[in-house]
Amino acid sequence: MSTSTESIEELANKDYQFGFVTDIEADEVPIGLTEDTIRQISVKKNEPEFMLEWRLRAYRQWLAMTEPKWPNVKVSPIDYQSIVYYSAPKPKKQLVSLDEVDPEVLRTFQKLGISLEEQMRLSGVAVDAVFDSVSVATTFREKLGELGIIFCSFSEAVKHHPDLIKLYLGSVVPYSDNYYATLNSAVFSDGSFCYVPKGVRCPMELSTYFRINAANTGQFERTLIIADEGATVSYLEGCTAPMRDENQLHAAVVELVALKGATIKYSTVQNWYPGDKDGKGGIYNFVTKRGKAMENAKISWTQVETGSAITWKYPSCILQGDNSIGEFYSVALTNNMQQADTGTKMVHIGKNTRSTIVSKGISAGHGQNTYRGLVRVNAGAEGARNYSQCDSLLLGDRCGAHTFPYIDVRNQTSKVEHEASTSKIGEDQIFYCNQRGISTEDAVSMIVNGFCKEVFRELPMEFAVEAQKLLGVSLEGSVG
Amino acid sequence: MLEIRNLHASVEGREILKGINLTVGKGEVHAIMGPNGSGKSTLASVLAGKDDYDVTAGEVTLNGRDLLELSPEDRAREGIFLAFQYPVELPGVNNTYFLRTALNAIRAHQGLEPYDSFDFLKLVKDKIKLLQIDQDLLNRPVNEGFSGGEKKRNEIFQMAVLDPKLAILDETDSGLDIDALKVVANGVNALRGPERSIIVVTHYQRLLNYIVPDFVHVLVNGRIVKSGGKELAFELEERGYDWVGQDAEVLEPVAA
């Protein structure tokens, strides 16, 4: 339909806004993966023996594994021997304040509109900024320290809190879990660690900005968050990446442990380079995220996924304790040649456990969007309840939406509900907006944001605003 | 104000409007009546710029400006408002937010400052009082889950806020019971004024008991076959469309 489609096509061809490369001297290990590579990583990071052993166990396991073939995505083969597994900006000296951070790094953050100074001064958000693979700035630590909250890079936690690491590392995602998680366990470079002690409510949103930078460097983040009994914490993760021609592998692991009566809220806005409109370049995002909720605990995942060439990600909840609650709110957008296979797993083990799944998939261009979710109610999960809602929105007639809900119920007293819908942005809707003076671009953005409202509502305020802007940019997609 | 000359329009190669001539002056209310399939709704859609229709001949000007070369959004910004026969649902899009975006787009076109939420809310509350609309409507998603009557009322409410120069009401009476009809008609009457022209497209005379037009035109088979004052509507009610259609060509079955 001539005019509106043409202008939409034009918008769809806009370049990725955040594509730039920062020139920083990088400290790298040689290309490829052997036991030696892992020993080198461990040495470079000054790790204790137990950590190296854990890595090696994972590596040996990984050698015997194969990549999963079940995701509904087309991946060109990955050569794991052509990846650089460790790269860190060379620290000139120990950093005490932001003033000492490489100005080039700070400028990069500023380009992304996430100036650390601003955030420190204005928003009260403590930022553990991961630049490539090593944390270069950690803020507000003292303030958090007064409450006994530990918020630091993963490497620091390994050094200073080995007992917590030994106790909880791999307790939710074992090193043998799946191909990518096992690879991560072998080679992970750094990430974030957070521990909130008993009964403490973390007074600010904790936030980490990830960024993939050095060429050919796979990024293997590892995040571990522990909320002790009755503690509450909200964690934000947001990312953008510079433009690249070759595919970049990203295989992160996030583990959440919510002990008795604790609450963890984990929010993600993901905007990694999706590749150009012909599907060249872009990040491969193969992530394992899982949380374990003990008695009366609650874990809530909210994600807005707009980037990456391929997204393979299922933030999940093991509802182990009685009365525990799991939530998953997701917006996944695929435009151009992007592919996403994403969803969640809710495993009900405890009695009266409850879970909610709200998934909103948006496909535009040639994008392929798959929701894959498992709701499992074990025999002992008396009175378990699940509500799932999966909605797909199509823009144009060359994209696809797929839904694979798996429901496995072994308890008669439980109640599982699943609702699904697929709709298309209609010419009628666009025309209605046009007739009120609203441009096609704004109309599409408005309709899509309306479609995602239930998920955005779950995001912390500042993140919700960012997410809406992001959808507007990523979405300038096609309507047919 | 609005000047339509020899307008021809077709959809998928089939001609529906076969030479419309119509002049609507400032502040005037014109009713366009006609049997089903005569082209009434097509005329409304063509004026608003819906691209399902090809204009094959003729011209349309609004205050001397060629309307046909403008996009639908620019026509709206120039002051054309279409109250839809079937208002479209926009799930999850807040009614107030939608209207503010629309009004600010129109204001930007006119070189005016955008309304902030505070001023906008004040404006909206004034209009709500004027039209006796339930305030709850403001916070609901645009037309989602609205009853037929609520949708039509919402159209008139939007018209009140956007303050168009020319409002086209496309079968606004369809699907309304008599009480809802009165509410909508009262709203429209409240918005009548010397600066605003209104075209009322309707199949039935009953709406015109409440919105009394200055002129009535009868559209049959893509042409205006008779024009007159408000009394023409009563005549049509009594004698039916066959009476005026005698001179016109035989009706082809055409979707409304």
Concise account of the structure shown:
The complex is a heterodimer of chains A (480) and B (256). Chain A is an alpha/beta fold and 480 residues long.
How would you explain this protein's 3D organization?
The complex is a heterodimer of chains A (480) and B (256). With 480 residues, chain A is of the alpha/beta class. Chain A has one domain. Chain A contains 13 helices and 23 strands. In chain A, strands 5, 6, 8, 10, 11, 13, 15, 16, 18, 20 and 22 form an eleven-stranded mixed β-sheet that branches. In chain A, strands 4-3-7-9-12-14-17-19-21-23 form a ten-stranded mixed β-sheet. In chain A, helix 2 (35-44) packs antiparallel against helix 3, helix 10 (427-435) crosses helix 11 (440-451) and helix 11 (440-451) packs across helix 13. Chain A is globular. The model of chain A is unreliable at 1-13, 91-95, 118-126, 131-137 and 209-217 (pLDDT under 50). The model of chain B is unreliable at 248-256 (pLDDT under 50). Chain B has one domain (2-245): 3-Layer(aba) Sandwich (Rossmann fold). Chain B has helices spanning 40-48, 72-77, 95-109, 117-131, 148-162, 178-190, 207-210, 231-239, 241-245, and strands at 2-11, 14-24, 29-33, 54-62, 65-66, 80-83, 166-170, 197-202, 215-220, 223-228. The longest helix of chain B has 15 residues, at 95-109. Chain B contains nine helices and ten strands. The interface between A and B is medium-sized, with 26 and 34 residues.
